[in-house]
Specification:
- The complex is a heterodimer of chains A (701) and B (328).
- By secondary structure, chain A is mostly beta strands.
- Chain A has a domain of 211 residues.
- Helix content of chain A is 2%, strand content 62%.
- In chain A, the strands form four sheets. Chain A has a 26-stranded antiparallel barrel. Chain A has a three-stranded mixed sheet with strand order 6-11-12, with no helix packed on it.
- The longest helix of chain A has 10 residues.
- The termini of chain B are far apart.
- Chain B is 26% helix and 2% strand.
- Chain B has a two-stranded antiparallel sheet with strand order 1-3.
- In chain B, helix 1 packs antiparallel against helix 2.
- With 328 residues, chain B is mainly alpha-helical.
- The chains are: A mainly beta (701), B mainly alpha (328).
- Chains A and B meet through helix 1, helix 2, strand 3, strand 5 and strand 8 of A and helix 1, helix 7, helix 11, strand 1 and helix 13 of B.
């Protein structure tokens, strides 16, 4: 990594536009050195709905929105007391407010409030009753009256910081957060591939209290972190309007975690430093299981409370040193043990596959070490060599690969994983015009013997996260800055993963590659006009090998398939900033992004079984998916006087997709079920909207 | 003197690209006549602000904001009532040769320079910051990926400005994407955290000064995710193994083309681990008409999650084989 300082347009420019006029105006010490404030008020209008682009910004619907932002900062210089007030997006459902008091070096209190929406981009045409509640009814009639429904959630968070400097070296801080999340989320009925909606009504609380000592040589930071999740609901009952097809869907239950932590560091010399980290956490989930109250649903012997408990311990040691003038070394050792101590009980004694099913606690014990050396070479070059080692024990608390919970899996398991990674990098920095680095990484992951699963077919795959893997990765980056006015940055990354397989275990991901190419440039045409641009292309490809066996006769292999998965993206960004006159600044930003996803498959039909066609009867092959987003933003800021500006923003936004996720092969909307209400999911593949906004900005000190 | 300073200011502005030289050169003869300079912002800053005053206008361009030296007064570093507030030389060194320069020509650089083309080693620059800021969540800085890769504090932070953009969540990505191009591309994809919308920032999940894996704010991926997605923490009656291990086995938090930040669409994602008779091994396709067949719905709608709806874990104690498969 270099110390390049190429900057990507907007904020630096915006800051200069906002404050840089001072360079051309009266220069005054107070103006330059006293905190500044601003308040802006205006109105904007979106011309059309933006279901896709408006998922998070609270402006999904067309129409007018208030634009009100404030950033008020006051300081009493005599006492070093700061008073702040911030407001953002007050005219939308993603508003933020903050107020702060700080007597610098003594104490501080900050209170923040913010909202965040996540609106589902689709519209649901449904007759389902009870949406938003814990009792849902799916209408069984063929064509009942339906209405359009939109789904989404909103978070509202309060965040309080309290800080007290007990002495110049000792600080006590408390942070408390409370967030509520309400709304609805698209779901499934579980027992059938039918439409359902999860009611969201939950609250989280987090508190972190930290006592920190910061000395010249010794630093310590220790404290307590607690977090609580409270869900107002624990069970949803869904049924058909006929009264049949009752499915009880469970929700996340109340849980909590408590952690004690201590971090420390000691600088033995200016170049030799040791650090440590110790954490102990206990997470529990002990709410009553709602399904235990439904007559005949659970085993009489099944627990009515999970009594879940996970204890996690972490120990970490680190050392940085410079044993030779030109050689610096970084080393660390980390041990983390996530021990699920939940008691194991029998919950299921019926059904196909494993006939007995327990709850499934997992343990992970990881020891990881890192050693890295940097050697300074002539001409500002440096050579970096690194070695990372990881050893993980992954165990189930019951079973011996023959009996107990260990035989109840649908996916093979490995009790141990080892990974070794070598890194080599050549870097040049501190040059006047050219900086850059080239890096190579090779990682090898191997594991212990696979344990079996409950079915032969399930045991023929190499699961992606535990499969043997060899990873090779290259990275090249270079910055060229021949003058103050012009800079160019190039990045190239290439990686390849190869996954282990053999004749007895042939399925799973075989290999994958990823590539990234990016080019960034900036040019200052004059002091008043500057342009920036960037271009990037990346792609990820993977070859995945799978098989299908007949359900009625699992030994009958019906087909084998290699899918060549591709995700690719091209993106372009252009920016221009200009000063038309001393009082009038303009700017424009264009961003164009296109992503492509492809799913071509090579299929070998074996002739066994009953489903012999490449795609099961009634299906067509998956087409490629292309998404395109274009956003053009224009703005102009006119200084009405020294303290006030008028800003106008224009945005043109265009979203286009041929995503088939919610479409039948003929392009008609996906419709749930065959004998139920016919809930349809309506997507809008082309969305174009324009925004115009004007605001008055008042600046003061 | 005020008139003289104003004159320097005008010269500084008109002089455009040669502004620093003009400002630096011109005061020398005048300085011999004027009274000892007074501190403008910081204690003992007169020896610096005698030249680097309100007339000292570095070459600003719109691409790279060069804040004025006096802008330090707008910041915490310019609040002199706080006894901890440093002086100019606390960060830039005593710089005796720089201060002793007389006459025309560019003076020697100060001892510690933080600008773009500085020859001051990163370790020296960072030492100036760490002499006060080594505590708290920066205890592990030297072991962090950034720290061990010679990233300077001032590669990301601007000190002489009230608007340090890397500390503004609506603008932070502009700084991070300077190096992290892959994440810039991913954030532009259809499924992403609300970072481009300015509702989250990179630092919502990453402590870029820390030595946790992937420089996360918590000691593991899952513990970081749980700070906002605590409903996934469980433990559940029926845990989905990769969920309990690492959220990033299935999710790419920076952005994906598949919904819900999934690395791949179902059933391909699920078939990375699941091999089984019947529909789990299906060849996915696009249905031509309404269906309830699980063999036909692996890719459409919510894919495998049409039925396996509680994929993060189930709290059902129902005596049914379906619960262990996250359908209840």
């Amino acid at each position: 990594m270099t110390h390049t300082t190429f900057k990507l347009t907007t904020l630096a420019t915006a800051l200069l536009l906002a404050y840089g006029q001072g360079f051309a105006q009266e220069l005054d010490v107070a103006e330059l050195s006293k905190p500044s404030s601003s308040v802006s008020l205006g109105v904007g209008n979106w011309s059309a709905k933006r279901p896709q682009q408006g998922i998070h910004d609270g402006m999904r619907d067309n129409g007018a929105y208030g634009l009100f932002d404030a950033d008020i900062v006051k300081r009493d210089d005599a006492t070093g007391t700061w008073m702040t007030f911030t407001a953002r997006s007050l005219g939308t459902t993603t508003r933020e407010l903050g107020a702060g008091y700080e007597r610098q070096g003594d104490c501080a209190a900050n209170l923040r409030y913010n909202e965040l929406t996540r609106d589902n981009p689709y519209t649901f045409n449904t007759a389902t009753q009870g949406i938003g509640t814990t009792t849902l009814t799916t209408i069984s009639a063929a064509n009942p009256a339906r209405s359009e429904v939109t789904l989404g959630t909103q978070r509202k968070k309060f965040d309080l910081d309290l800080v007290k400097h007990i002495s110049p070296e000792l600080k006590f801080a408390i942070n408390f957060k409370q967030e509520t999340k309400d709304g609805t989320r698209q779901w499934g009925r579980g027992g059938a591939a039918e439409f359902s909606v999860e009611p969201i009504d939950a609250r989280t609380r987090q508190i972190e209290a930290t006592l920190s000592h910061t000395g010249k040589q010794l630093q310590l930071s220790g404290g307590y972190y607690g977090s609580w999740y409270d869900n107002a609901n624990s069970l949803v009952t869904t049924a058909l309007s006929t009264g049949a097809g009752i499915y009880y869907l469970t929700l996340p239950l109340d849980n909590q975690a408590h952690q004690l932590f201590l971090d420390g560091g000691y600088s033995f010399t200016p170049t030799t430093r040791g650090t440590f980290k110790v954490q102990y956490s206990r997470a529990t989930q002990n709410e009553h299981l709602a399904t235990a109250d439904i007559a005949g649903l659970a085993l009489a012997t099944a627990p009515t409370n999970l009594n879940g408990r996970i204890d996690t311990t972490l120990y970490q040691l680190g050392l940085t040193a410079r044993p030779l003038r030109d050689l610096s070394v970084v080393a660390s050792l980390r041990y983390r043990n996530e021990d699920d101590k939940t008691p194991v009980a029998t919950y299921v004694t019926t059904g196909a596959g494993p006939t007995i099913v327990h709850n499934t606690p997992y343990n992970y014990k990881t020891l990881a070490g890192k050693l890295e050396g940097t050697y300074q070479l002539p001409e500002n070059f440096s050579l970096i060599a690194g070695l990372d080692l990881s050893n993980q024990d992954r165990t189930l608390p019951v079973g011996n690969l023959v009996a107990g919970t260990d035989t109840e899996r649908f996916v093979p398991f490995r009790a141990g994983l080892d990974e070794t990674t070598y890194r080599l990098q050549l870097r040049r920095a501190l040059s006047d015009t050219v900086n850059g680095s080239v890096a190579y990484l090779q990682g090898k992951r191997k594991g212990s013997a696979y344990s079996g699963t409950e079915a032969t077919q399930s045991d023929q795959i190499n699961p992606i996260h535990i499969a043997d893997r060899t990873r090779n990765k290259w990275r090249l980056s270079a910055d060229w800055m021949p003058s103050e006015a012009f800079s160019l940055q190039v990045n190239v990354e290439a990686a390849k993963d190869e996954y282990g397989n053999d004749a007895a275990r042939p399925y799973g991901l075989r290999d994958g590659t990823s590539n990234l190419y990016s080019l960034d440039a900036s040019y200052a045409i004059s002091r008043n006009w500057q342009v920036t641009g960037w271009l990037s292309h990346d792609n990820t490809r993977a070859n995945q090998y799978n098989a299908r066996w007949q359900q009625a006769a699992p030994n009958n292999l019906e087909a084998q398939r290699t899918t060549h998965l591709t995700d690719a993206e091209d993106a372009l960004g252009l920016g221009v900033r200009g000063k038309v006159s001393g009082a009038f600044n303009v700017g424009a930003d264009l961003q164009w992004t296109e992503t492509r996803a492809e799913y071509p498959s090579d299929i070998t039909v074996t002739g066994l079984g009953t489903t012999l066609t490449p795609y099961p009867a009634g299906n067509n092959a998956l087409p490629n998916i292309r998404n395109q987003i274009v956003t053009l933003k224009l703005f102009g800021v006119y200084a009405l006087d020294k303290n006030s500006d008028l800003r106008v923003d224009l945005i043109h936004e265009r979203w286009k997709t041929n995503d088939w996720s919610w479409l039948f092969a003929d392009g008609s909307p996906f419709t749930y079920g065959t004998a139920t209400d016919g809930t349809q999911v309506l997507s809008n593949p082309k969305q174009t909207s324009n925004f115009i906004g004007a605001r008055y900005i008042y600046k003061f000190q | 003197m005020k008139a003289l300073l104003t004159l320097f200011a005008v010269i500084g502005i008109i002089g455009m690209s040669s502004a620093p030289a003009v400002a630096a050169d011109a005061p020398a003869p005048a300085a011999e006549k004027k009274e000892p300079a007074k501190d403008l912002i910081l204690k003992g800053d007169a020896k610096c602000t005698g030249c680097h005053d309100e007339a000292d206008v570095p070459k600003p361009t719109m691409l790279e904001l060069h804040p004025q030296v006096l802008n330090i007064g707008k910041t915490k570093h310019g609040t002199v009532a706080d006894a901890r507030t440093p002086t100019c030389t606390a960060c830039h060194g005593e710089s005796e040769k720089h201060l002793a320069h007389k006459g025309s020509g560019k003076p020697p650089k100060p001892d510690t320079v933080f600008s773009m083309r500085t020859q001051t080693p990163v370790e020296t620059r960072n030492a100036a910051c760490l002499s006060c800021h080594q505590g708290g969540n920066r205890i592990g800085w030297q072991l962090s990926k950034h720290g061990s890769q010679d990233v300077a504090c001032t590669s990301c932070h601007q000190i002489h400005t009230a608007q340090d953009r890397v500390r503004d969540k609506t603008a932070q990505t502009e700084v991070c994407f300077t190096c992290h191009k892959e994440q810039r591309a991913q954030m532009a994809r259809v499924s992403h955290h609300p970072v481009p919308e300015g509702k989250m920032a990179c630092s919502s999940c990453h402590n870029v000064h820390g030595d946790n894996p992937k420089q996360l704010v918590k000691s593991s991926v899952n513990d970081t995710c749980y700070t906002c997605h605590m409903e996934k923490r469980g433990p559940f009656v029926h845990n989905h193994q990769p969920v309990s291990e690492d959220c990033s086995i299935c999710h790419q938090a920076h952005g994906t083309t598949a919904a819900n930040l999934l690395k791949s669409r179902t059933p391909f994602l699920c078939q990375e681990c699941h091999s089984h008779s019947s529909h789990p091994g299906q060849t996915p396709g696009q249905p031509t008409t309404r269906t309830t067949s699980t063999s036909l719905l692996g890719a459409i709608g919510r894919g495998c999650l049409n039925c396996h709806t509680n994929i993060h874990g189930s709290n059902s104690s129902q005596n049914s084989a379906t619960v262990g498969r996250f359908r209840r």
